[in-house]
Specification:
This protein has helices spanning 4-20, 25-40, 43-66, 78-105, 108-132, 140-153, 157-168, 170-173, 182-200, 206-235. It is an all-alpha fold. Helix 4 (78-105) runs antiparallel to helix 5 (108-132) and helix 5 crosses helix 6 (140-153). It starts with a helix and ends in a 6-residue tail after the last helix.
C-alpha cells in the first residue's frame, strides 16, 4: 500500500509530463498570431503596460502579505496541508466566480474592472498557499517564487517550460534571480487571457463566460500552486511524517 507521499510523488510525475508536453498545432498557431500582434504594438506602449502591471502586482503583494495567516501550517502533515489548500481554493474560487459573473454582466467597462480584481484574488490565494506549506511570505525569495508559480499557471509553451525548470530547480536557480522579467510576465498573462476576457465583455453573454472562466482559472492556479509547493517540500526539504 502506497504512503501518501508516494501517491503525491506519482501525481507530480504526471503533472510534470503534462506541463512539459509539446504544444498542439492550434496552440502553436495561436501563439504565432499573438506574437505578431505583440510586435505591432509600439515598444513605448509595451513599457507602459509592463510598468502598470508591475506596480499593480507589487501593490497586491504587499496587501496580500498583511492579511495572510502565516502560522496556519504549524504541525500539519503534507496530507493535511493539501486538504487545507483545497478548502482555501474552494473559497477563493467561489469569490472569483461571483466576481466574474458580476463584472461580465456589466459589459465592456465592468469587464475591464475584472482584470485587477481577479489578479488580486489570485495573488491572495498564492500567499495563502505559501503559508499553508510553511513558507515565509515576508521573504523576498518567497514572493519571487509566488510570481513564478503565477507565471507557470498562466503562460504557454517555451515560457511555461522555462518557468517549470526554474521552480523544479529553485534551490539553485533562485541565486541567479534578481527580479521578474516583467515584460514577459505581462505578455504571457495577457495572451493567456485575451480570448476569454474579450468574450466576457460581450453584454448578455459575459456573465456566463466570466463565471466559467474565473472558475477554471482558479482551478489552474490551485493545481499549479499545490504541485509547486509539494515539489519543494518533497524534493528539497525532506521531512519525517
Amino acid at each position: 500500500m502506497y504512503s501518501y507521499e508516494e501517491k503525491v510523488y506519482n501525481e507530480l510525475q504526471a503533472w510534470r509530463r503534462d506541463v512539459l508536453k509539446r504544444p498542439g498545432f492550434l496552440t502553436q498557431l495561436s501563439k504565432k498570431t499573438q506574437t505578431k500582434i505583440n510586435r505591432m504594438i509600439p515598444d513605448k506602449a509595451h513599457k507602459i503596460i509592463t510598468e502598470s502591471l508591475k506596480k499593480m502586482v507589487q501593490a497586491i503583494l504587499v496587501g496580500s502579505d498583511i492579511t495572510t495567516n502565516k502560522h496556519q501550517s504549524v504541525g500539519l502533515s503534507l496530507y493535511e496541508q493539501d486538504e487545507l489548500l483545497k478548502e482555501k481554493l474552494t473559497s477563493y474560487r467561489k469569490t472569483a466566480v461571483v466576481e466574474g459573473a458580476g463584472t461580465g454582466a456589466g459589459g465592456f467597462f465592468l469587464g475591464l474592472a475584472d482584470f485587477p480584481m481577479l489578479l488580486s484574488i489570485k495573488m491572495k490565494f498564492l500567499f495563502e498557499a505559501a503559508a499553508i506549506y510553511g513558507f515565509d511570505t515576508n521573504s523576498y525569495e518567497e514572493r519571487l517564487f509566488i510570481l513564478h508559480v503565477f507565471q507557470l499557471a498562466f503562460s504557454r509553451d517555451a515560457t511555461r517550460r522555462r518557468t517549470y525548470y526554474t521552480i523544479e530547480n529553485w534551490q539553485t536557480e533562485k541565486d541567479r534571480l534578481i527580479d521578474m522579467d516583467w515584460r514577459v510576465f505581462q505578455q504571457e498573462y495577457r495572451d493567456y487571457l485575451d480570448l476569454i476576457k474579450l468574450l466576457q465583455m460581450v453584454p448578455g453573454f459575459g456573465a456566463i463566460v466570466g463565471a466559467y472562466a474565473n472558475h477554471n482559472l482558479l482551478d489552474t492556479l490551485g493545481e499549479t500552486a499545490m504541485n509547486a509547493y509539494r515539489m519543494r517540500l518533497l524534493f528539497t526539504q525532506p521531512r519525517d511524517y
